[in-house]
Amino acid sequence: MKKKVLTVDDSRTIRNMLLVTLNNAGFETIQAEDGVEGLEVLEDANPDVIVTDINMPRLDGFGFIEGVRRNEKYRAVPILVLTTESDAEKKNRARQAGATGWIVKPFDPAKLIDAIERVTA
Amino acid sequence: MDMNEIKEIFFQECEEQLAELESGLLKLNDGDRDPETVNAVFRAVHSIKGGAGAFGLDDLVAFAHVFETTLDCVRSGKLEPGQDVLKVMLKSADVLADLVSSSRDGGSVDESRTRGLVKELEALAHGELPSASGHDAPKPAAKPAAAAAPAPKAETPKPTDDSGFQPIPFTFDGFGQEEEPVIEGSTYEVVFKPRRELYSKGNEAALLLRDLSRVGEMSIACDTDALPDLDKMDPEESYFSWKISVKTTKSEDDIRIVFEFAEWDCDLEVKFADEASSDEEQPMRPVPFDLSILDDAPSAEDDDKQAEHGADQTVAEAVSAAETATSVAKAAGAAARAAERKESAAAAAAAAQNNAAAAAASAGQTIRVDLDRVDRLINLVGELVINQAMLSQSVIENDATGTSSINMGLEELQQLTREIQDSVMAIRAQPVKPVFQRMSRIVREVADMVGKQIRLVTEGENTEVDKTVIDKLAEPLTHMIRNAVDHGIESPEKREAAGKNPEGTIKLTAKHRSGRILIELQDDGAGINRERVRQKAIDNDIIAADANLSDDEIDNLIFMAGFSTADKISDISGRGVGMDVVKRSIQALGGRISISSRPGFGSTFTMSLPLTLAVLDGMVVTVAGQTLVVPLTAIVETLQPEASAIHSFGASQRLISIRNSFCPLVDVGRVLNYRSTQANPVEGVALLVESEGGGQRALMVDAIQGQRQVVIKSLEANYTHVPGIAAATILGDGRVALILDVDAVVAASRGQSLRPEMSLAATG
User: Fold this and answer.
1) DSSP characters for B148-192?
2) CATH (one of 1.10.287, 1.10.3470, 2.60.40, 3.30.1180) for B371-430
3) Global pTM?
């Protein structure tokens, strides 16, 4: 069965790149535009792994991760943070919110797939 | 979807983000301190950087990164966004826009300007306020001395490398400094003890061990000593640790990278085997490692590696212990916490739902449609309107109106058609906002160039008008804004001397007024210097030296061809285009422009434009048996001339006296060569029209048929350009009628005999 990835990113460009990359790599992809929408679609999406941006309107990546971790059903789902934030402070905040790992942009398809495979069986 | 399409989307998105950026910065400039505004500005730059990085647009990434770093200082409250700071930011936004367009269309960017702004931005991030003059900031002092000084703690931007990213040193307290010797097949001892947080963040000991197995050949032992009796066991706790020896050709960093995501949440020791083994006994039996059971579909790479290792009973135990630990934790944890979490989760969900609903309501739903499709629809609706009119006409002609059901049906059809037409026009309607936003950049740049302080205030930027009108509006508006900055607003010193605020204001307003859009450009500058304008007009042979002109007429002289008040051609407004060109392009849009000015208080340009170029309100007239349409906007009034009001002038020209002033009479039939003899004005109707230069003319036509809205059909597209004719339309009876180009007709009549100065004198 295909693994399901939920991606949360407000940039149309990045959403499209994620979609193309993940579909080519054989994943099923569900997309949301910000943290609020991400939490909304979470239940129906039932993802195996989540990839999220940090800077987003309405609800940012930190809030979204906390929201996922509060959900009994998804509190152990691996969450990868896709962000250009390279400084340790933001990585740390993401980790404290409950992120599993991160992928530093610029967007690199190989790095993305590699990171997803690292956190999924 | 391929990469090129995504790139196209990226550039579209950039446009949106740039608009967002600029409007956010302008809000901040007006004193808005809403954190969400700062966030939106930050996100805009951040998004551009993210996408640009994916496409390898290094210049764009590098600049966006510096910009973003400085914005982050504003976001975190370290940098107060005062006027000086925002000035730099607005300029940076402009450079960012330039970089985006040069990335898309090729072409070059002013590199010294970019470099200068990078330095200014970096200085801001260092906590230095920009120099008062602002635009000559890249001084030597701003860079090396300041960078060396102890800068505020947080993010001091490190010098960026080629890609524009700051290097991320991956240091491990002492290890990163010197290269570990990489010995062929060296062995490392790894002690890995996960803490409970590791599992709560979605990491998995088993997966980490699987990754480690890919680094080299390994043997593993699981320490289960800490595992308590079942009744004392906390399902969320982590009890196991592992001792692994890895034989690899790779370096220690490669081993540590496996634990990159987990390093905070575990105790990890990585030692070179030789030092470790000497003083440490090995209580557990190390075993070769195989984690094939983890992969339900092993990859080719895994197969290679695993083929080398045999499965071992002890490994299976170790792994299943790890798996049990996590799965027990998951299941038991779920049950244990479900009750206590239920309430807060429900509350959170409810809150999220409320938020979402509110946001969805405010955001509004939009779709993107190719412009061609909309245009095709508009064309078809145009045909429908004509068809409906023809149908009505033929019903009347065949006298079928007696049947009331046909009548009612016709009326309904007419109403529906009109509604469809209005709705379709609304699709093409766009707010003038993008054009207005472009103007604020022009004001900034030109003001900077001429050393003036100017604020652009916009009003009614959400006023909607047909896209074609918007597109064609940008150029004349740009020119007028340049003029206002260059000539309208005085220098700060002069303003202060006159007791005014040294900062000038230009106000750009859009509003709907009786089915048209009214755009006003108002400056609080010195107003028109009438003495100089008059002198200039005399020098350029536009008016006679002794012409007697009212203030209004003098002001309107600036719209005359060949007029330019700038004594020296400046880089800014003197580009060989004068206000006459502006006026012509506004008129080409079916609009009108006028000026009013008060010396010392500034000038106001008012443009009135049609909301759409697809339909036109016209007066249907008859000339020499032909049916013509005269745009209603051009007509000031209509009148039936009396014989006593007509005066001959010269060989063949005639004037008509209207309320004590004389106005040249233009015989439309003759100008268009419908007839060779003069029509008798008393038998026809005169349409008083306003033409280029503000003068009035009386157009002679034979009769007025009525007034109606017509669908414009381009003559150029279907036939060829005809002088004196703007376009064509199809009337209800199916006949083609030509739409008169009033200005061309007037110009043609003037070209025959009347000299310009005479006409001006005559209207005076």
Assistant:
1) HS---SS-PPPPP-TTSPPP-----TTTTTSPPP--TTEEEEEEE
2) 1.10.287
3) 0.53
